[in-house]
């Protein structure tokens, strides 16, 4: 049984790379939060496999928050729909309940034909950071790229194109916050609109920044989460 006298633990679920390496700036900005990063082994590429893996890593002895970044949003949503004991709140960052680019679903079958190569840094910079691409963040992205499996990332992208967790949203009771980047070049505004339509009580905070919001605006994101928790009813 969870000890409700303990402060909630923030469980961080990573983006497409699965390494959790890109959480480093955000972890430094958390200050008063205890946090745990879940890292996906390269063999975990499907949503059911990732959901099962994270389920085994949820704390049993203290309350917790789930934060799903980008790829991991559907993982966090599925687990929240199960209403696990101790779940205090859910946070989505740059994420979605279903394929955020449904018009590109026809590409899913072609992904398996692509060579297993790492994304070039210039493309990663354009898509994920834009004008927030500082030298430290690009160095961190290179370190992440050296750890991440290109094959796993390609397979996870295929999983994104096929996911639709909309039916699960009606089962979510935990307060939910969506952190939305105003300059996101990967996940369009329509993804948040879809979430709001099926989660009427969704709390949305928009921050000026790129898709990698936790990396480019870590202090602002941490503050938004603290403010969100402060708005929740006690107990």
UniProtKB/TrEMBL annotation:
Record domain AB hydrolase-1: where: 13-223
Coiled-coil annotated spans: none
Family annotation (InterPro entries): AB_hydrolase_1, AB_hydrolase_fold
Domain of life: Bacteria
PANTHER family, per database record: MONOACYLGLYCEROL_DIACYLGLYCEROL O-ACYLTRANSFERASE, TRANSMEMBRANE PROTEIN 68
This protein's name: AB hydrolase-1 domain-containing protein
Native source organism of the sequence: Geothrix limicola
């Amino acid at each position: 049984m969870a000890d409700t006298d303990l402060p909630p633990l923030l469980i961080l679920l990573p983006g497409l790379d699965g390494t959790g390496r890109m959480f480093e700036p955000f972890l430094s900005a958390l200050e008063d939060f205890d946090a745990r990063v879940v890292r996906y082994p390269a063999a975990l590429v499907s949503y059911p496999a990732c959901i099962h893996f994270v389920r085994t890593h949820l704390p049993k002895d203290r309350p917790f928050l789930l934060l799903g970044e980008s790829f991991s949003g559907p993982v966090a949503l599925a687990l929240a729909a199960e209403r696990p004991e101790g779940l205090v709140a859910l946070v989505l960052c740059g994420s979605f309940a279903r394929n955020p680019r449904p018009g590109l679903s026809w590409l899913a079958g072609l992904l398996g034909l692509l060579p297993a190569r790492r994304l070039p840094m210039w493309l990663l910079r354009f898509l994920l950071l834009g004008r927030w691409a500082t030298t430290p963040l690009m160095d961190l992205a290179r370190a992440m790229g050296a750890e991440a499996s290109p094959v796993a990332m390609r397979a996870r992208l295929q999983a994104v194109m096929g996911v639709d967790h909309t039916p699960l949203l009606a089962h979510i009771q935990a307060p939910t916050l969506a952190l939305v980047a105003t300059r996101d070049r990967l996940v369009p505004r329509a993804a948040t609109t879809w979430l709001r339509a099926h989660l009427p009580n969704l709390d949305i905070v928009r921050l000026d920044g790129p898709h990698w919001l936790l990396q480019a605006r870590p202090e602002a994101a941490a503050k938004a989460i603290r403010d969100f928790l402060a708005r929740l009813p006690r107990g």
